[in-house]
# Entry
Amino acid sequence: MNKDFLKYQAQTTPHPLGLEVIDAKGSYIYTSDGQKHLDFVAGVSATSLGHCHPAVITAIKKQADKYLHVMVYGEYAQAPAVDFSKLLAKSLPDPLNKVYLVNSGTEAIEGALKLARRATGRTEILAAKNAYHGNTMGSLSLMNFEERQKPFRPLIGDVDFIEFNNDDNLNRITKKTAAVILETIQGGAGFIEPQNDYLKKVKDHCEAVGALLILDEIQPGFGRTGKLFGFENYDVVPDIMAIGKGMGGGLPVGAFVASEKLMDLLADHPKMGHITTFGGNPLVAAACHATLKTILETELMAETLEKEKCFRELLIHPLITAVRGKGLMLAAIVESEDIANQVIINCKEKGLILFWLLFEKTAIRITPPLTISIEEIEEGCGIIIDVLNKIKNKA
Ligand SMILES: Cc1ncc(COP(=O)(O)O)c(C=O)c1O
# Structure
């Protein structure tokens, strides 16, 4: 299968990991060579309830027996999308009470940017250095990484960059600014948390000049940091929130959420300010609803913080210089890029799946399903420590 995968499917890197997946349940992925792999990555923070969670599978099967796609987003009332949007809106603080369902994280960002420009009549977008918001043209414009942007220029205009956690940059938010867009916790940069009320200060500056704050919750959202959304840890509420990844229980999805007053602007002047064929797809929305209900009705969020503690206690080693992040959005930082590469590759050989971060090359991504057990955490951390010991003994 790998040969055909490389031949017929477009590749994103010259050396994909290339596991030949035949099955996945809970915290494990099973491959065609008979191996079982403990998954510390969860499809890059996406399968938050583990692989094939029974509540998600049941909801998908039930909906598949009723109807699939019947109409473009926004025309027909369909129970899965309505029920999910209502439950989500009721779980959010004011004024986040209206949900626009789309197909991916990056489309959620595109929608959020369009809404901010439409609402303010301004064009300037301020993003953070080392941020990642997705890969379509708008989202790519928010990534100040010359090597990745250059071949695709011209990107969207009037985007500028501030430094995350740097109060001295806050005066860059002016009456020209439509929106400041930030990841609540910076992912690709190395799982950097906001410090010293940074997000509150950004929001205050935005309010003072009539700019909007967009928070990208695509990775931290849906319980990964111990709260339903990451911003709840930092005493701030964004004007617009972008979500995706863990929202769909393993199906592809995104959404942006704002106040009714803001969101209604997309329906007029011009009409159809954002449209999408498959947004709110009934099968996907049924999976989202089952996922959200499960997160809200179980102890998963509280357990996430216990599990973080467990990781922090077990990931102590002379080659690990820090464990960054919050909840089950963690990164073990090692002394060099070479060590990070060796750990990720050698752990894969021993049946533990880890992954890289986009910009911070000394980081090892640890974003397992929220449903992972303490025994599985112990098993995986044991493999990491073994591999690190071997690297250290060789040096
Ligand atoms: C913080 C953040 N924003 C946006 C995205 C883009 O989401 P998607 O890949 O679903 O388009 C990602 C994906 O990694 C992400 O981590």
Q: What stands out?
A: Residues 44, 104-106, 109, 132-134, 183, 187, 216, 218-219, 244, 254 surround pyridoxal-5'-phosphate (CB under 6 Å).
